[in-house]
Each structure stands twice: as structure tokens, then as C-alpha cells.
Amino acid sequence: MKFTNGYWLLRDGVTMQRPAEVHDLEIREDELVVHAPVTRILTRGDTLNKPVLSVSFTAPREDVIAVRIEHFAGHRESLPRFALTPGPVTPEITRSEDGATAAFTSGRLTARVALRGPWHVDYLWDGEVLTSSTARSIGYAQVEGEGPYVHEQLSLSVGEHVYGLGERFGAFVKNGQSVDIWNADGGTSSEQAYKNVPFYLSSRGYGVLVDDAGPVSFEVGSENVSATQFSVPGERLRYEVYGGGTPLEVLDRYTARSGRPPQLPEWSYGLWLSTSFTTDYDEETVLSFVDGMAERDIPLSVFHFDCFWMRGFHWSDFTWDPATFPDPRGLLRKLHERGLKVCVWINPYIAQRSALFAEGAQKGYLLRTEDGSVWQTDLWQAGMALVDFTNPEATAWYTGKLEALLEDGVDAFKTDFGERIPVEGIRWHDGSDPLREHNHYTSRFNQAVFELLERRRGEGEAVLFARSATAGGQRFPIHWGGDCESTYVAMAQSLRGGLSLTSSGFGYWSHDIGGFEGTPDPTVFKRWIAFGLLSTHSRLHGSHSYRVPWLFDEESVVVMREFTRLKERLLPYLLDGAEETTRRGAPLMRSMALQFPADPACRGLDTQYMLGPDVLVAPVFQDSGAVEFYLPEGEWVHLIDGERVRGGRFVARTYDVHSLGVFARAGSRALQLVRGDEEGA
């Protein structure tokens, strides 16, 4: 949100108050609090009739500093809050000998507060300044017709790049962008996103989480081109600074606090095949697809039933459509006999015609309006309501309905939607602030289903295919990129979204091979197959057309077979990388900037990526097969044709549909697995 008109003036309807100086400080138990009036205090009379902003510094974990900026402390704390795990740490609070500064230190990270002169705080890592809050950084704004906001601006250095903020489909480097943290069902071609995370990662080796589940607004080098600004509505703002080092070290600290991605079952890395969305399908169709893949020697791991496994107008009632699937247990048994796992589509919306609607309404398990009525809409399913997951009994009721599907033989759930959560005129069971619950709702939904699978299938066997998320959502994988078109442009959009998401603490990511909307040209489909099977998780899915390869052309069958086999050979390498994801929060699929932060050529690359630490992937985004990519220093070997290239330079190549830019470091395990010990040596 922008408050200013240029650098000097405020926008119409905005008043702004900023801390002028530190008037005094308190050292409480493990906490430093400074009090800053909005004008300088020269006489006793200056203490009257003016606001004071209080800024506190605490240490939730080693190398992490939490900051709270507060105006009126008596305002009720808004719920929900992110689930953040504290760690053992004893901060050090000191004052300089000349009394000019106070320092709050957590591990190797220090907040140094100026006690004289204008407002100024430096955040230092091993004594080196990472970023600063300066005289115009903190603001308490009153916006006409909207109420108060609190904002902070942290300085950007020359050449500093900002990444993350969840899944974003625009430019990978966020500098110059305005980003609103607000989950929305906007596809992959807009500034909206399904997965909004108020955490950003700096190329200077630090991270910042705004600890607010609600609508955080970021101006990344936009309103003030020399700072990253973030603002929230209300009387207080909390944020956390994560100490320096490499970006992967910062993500290690951040995911230790917000949650690590868990280990996933080996079968989840194989190829998933879907019925697609609005296509016609029944048991015969499903088995023909599965058997067709086997007949063509294309390894398949999971079969997914999308929405219409249930009857239209009844979503979600978790009842198989008897006209289409009269014997669901028998069908699932046949799929299991073919060596497949089964996934079914669900969402948290209860249609008025669902058998669950009356039951949920009578028991108080559905979201209510302020007058006590069930909140309803016709957007998506006629008269649908929303499960109130702030009510533990409603959560148990909902997951209890899924138990029957697990008894049928379902192994995983696609937890779709979770973004269209109302904020006006509603009342949550636990009193949560509707603004904060809008983004946070998806965490409750995905957590409920994921934990059910852990209880029933065992730890390490739980898998979702989730669309929406916010901070901490990496604890409930997998997430896919949402509704993209079937074009090269959308393919690149999807990749940027995935790289932004995995820069925000998420370890795994997938997308719809071939795109969702429309039917891809056969060449686009083949290029997307290579990209999809060199992502952490791989799914064939579309909207109104099937995605089995023989419906495109016979060459698509060959390409599908080749790349599923390639991923099979890479599986031990991927499982090794997944252990690091669980242990340290290092994403299995990551940007070049994450893996090679010291190489300036990597900092803005968003059309290539690393799959684990040793495999570089540069998808092809045009029919000609031409692709340009950057190989960092060292020797790299093409996984398919064996070409050896010295890195530290950009390379241009042209590949047919059976290949792409995919190189492994010489001597790496990935290379040995694919090309044998001699090539890997």
C-alpha cells in the first residue's frame, strides 16, 4: 500500500506520524523496549498531546530478532497467528560506553538502536550492516475511511535483490513490485496468487517475515526505491529478521521457526495421471488410461480422480457418483492391483444439495454470518457453505467424513481451493479476525487433512496436492501451481511461481503438465513433459481435455516414456535431496540464486533452476528448440547426450523434443545414476 505522493508529500486523505527520536528505553527480561515520540522532546510540555511509538526487540530463536512496533497497546490481539516455534536462546542487551546506542543481540545477529539523534536501527550480522530502519522508515498512518496502518521500511543496498513473498507469477526478482499478501483464485496470468507468504529473502543474506496472518502490503523498492516497505492495518506491526549467511542458511533458520517440509513417500515422486476436470469419465475410461500407459511402457505412480467423481451440485459430499462409479471400492482395488496409489479431489465447500449441508448447519459446523445465519454463496457450487475449521468439532466432523474414503482405498487428497474466504459480515467460531482468517484458513484446511493421512497412513506416507497456502504451509505438501493456460508463456509463468514459492520456505512444487486451460499444441505438450518430469512432483492434468500422450501424437508417447524413465533413474538422488529439505528446509527445487548466491550472473535468472544441488534444468520455451542458459563455474555434463561444458558462461543450444538443457555437475551422484560410473567420475 502506498501512503506517499512522491518522496516528500502524503497522498490525499493520509496523515502520518513517525518516531522522531528515542526518548527512553526499558530493559525487561530478555527484551529491549524503546519509546519514540513523534516529535523531539525539548521541554516537559513537549510530552503532552502527542503519540509515542514503542518498539520492542526479542529473540525467538538464535540468529533471529523479532520486532514489535506498537501505538495503542490496549487494542485486542488479532487472531489467528502463525504457528512459530521458539528455540533456546539467551539474548545479550548492552549499551555503548558513550551511551549513544543500545544493542540487542541474538546469536550473530544484532539490532543496534541509536539513542541520540533521529530514529535509526541497524541490523548487523557479525558486525556488518545487512539492512536498516531509518528516520522515515516507521510510520503510523491514518487513512481516511479506512483507519490506522503501521508500516516499516528496511533499506535496500546497491545491487540488492529481493525474492519470495510466496508464489508469484511475475518477475522472479521482486524489486520494483507492489505485492499484496491476499490469497485469491486468480490463475497464473495476474498479480494475484494462491499462495501468499509474508516472507522475503534478500540476496544480501537475510530474511524478513511479517508476523501477521492478514493482508500485508509490500512495496519492494517501489514507493521508496531504496527500501522494502511493509504495512498492516491496525495499531501494531510485528516482523522478524532472520540472520545472515547464504540464502539456504537463512531458509534453514526460517523453516526452523515456521516449520520444515516433511519427508514424502517414494511413490509420490512418480508420474500422477488425472481424469482432468470437466471431461467425461467412468470406470472404463479410467482403466483404459491406466492400461494404455502400461501398454506403452510409461511408468505411472498415482491416479487422480478430479471433481466429478462426485455428483454435480453436491460438492463436497464425499459420495461417489453411483451412475459413473457404481463400485468404487472395486475400482480402487483394481488400481491398487496395478501398483498405483489413488488420489481424489476435495475442497472445504459444502453445497446446499450436499447431504452434509443440513447436518453441518444444525451442528454449527458451517461459517455463520453476524446474525447467526449460515453464510452461503452461489459462486462455485449452488448455495454452498464453508466448513468452520476454527471449531475443533467441525474439523473432526469434516475429517471424519474422509475416513470412509480412506476405507475405500484412497491414499491421498487433492485439497483444492481455500482462497475464496469471505471477510464481510461473518463470525468465526473462535472469534478470529475475518481479515486474518482469510489467508490463514487454508492452513487449517490443509493441516486437518494432512494430519488425518498421517494418523491413518503413517508418518512419511501423508501427501496432499494443495493449491492454496500461506506462511508455514510447507508443513503440508505437495503444492501445485494452479490454473495456467496451455502455452509457453504460461509454462514460464508457472516456473516463476514455483521459484518464488520455494524461496519462501516451501520444499516441493508441481504444476499441470501441458497446462490446465485449453489443449496444448503437441509441441508445447512435449516441451512441458520434460519440464514437468524434472520438477519435484509431476502430474498430468487439464480442464476440459485429457492429458494422456497418445491423444496428442505418437512422439508424445515416446517423450513421456523417456522422461519418466529419466526421473526414475534420478529418484535416489531426489530422495537424498529430500532429506536435506526435511533436515534444513532447503527446497528440493530451487532458483539459481539460492544455489549460487555469490555468482552475480545467477541473481536474476528465472527461466532455469536447480533440481537438488547438482542438476541444472533449462526448459525449452519455443518451438524452435532454442534455449539460452547459464552454467556456473565448474564442469557440467549433459544428462542425456553427455556433452561436457566448462561453466562460468552463458550457453546457447537447440534441442529436439527429446531433450532440453539438463546438466549435472561432473562427479555428482546424479550423473552416475543416469550415465553410469564412468561418466560420473
From TrEMBL:
Record domain Glycoside hydrolase family 31 N-terminal: where: 55-219
Q: What is its EC number?
A: 3.2.1.177
Question: What GO terms in the biological process aspect are recorded for it?
Answer: carbohydrate metabolic process
Q: What Pfam families does its record include? A: Gal_mutarotas_2, Glyco_hydro_31_2nd, Glyco_hydro_31_3rd
**Keywords carried by this UniProt record:** Glycosidase, Hydrolase
Any one Gene Ontology molecular-function term assigned to this protein's record: carbohydrate binding
Domain Glycosyl hydrolase family 31 C-terminal: start-end pairs:
585-668
This enzyme catalyses:
Hydrolysis of terminal, non-reducing alpha-D-xylose residues with release of alpha-D-xylose
Identify the InterPro entries for this entry: Alpha-glycosidase_related (IPR050985), Gal_mutarotase_sf_dom (IPR011013), GH (IPR017853), Glyco_hydro_31_C (IPR048395), Glyco_hydro_31_N_dom (IPR025887), Glyco_hydro_31_TIM (IPR000322), Glyco_hydro_b (IPR013780)
Q: Where is the Glycoside hydrolase family 31 TIM barrel domain?
A: 261-574
- From the UniProt annotation, give the residues forming the signal peptide: none
The enzyme's first-digit EC class, named in words, is hydrolase
Query: Which family does the UniProt entry place this protein in?
Result: Belongs to the glycosyl hydrolase 31 family.
Q: What is this protein called?
A: alpha-D-xyloside xylohydrolase
Q: Organism, per UniProt?
A: Brachybacterium saurashtrense
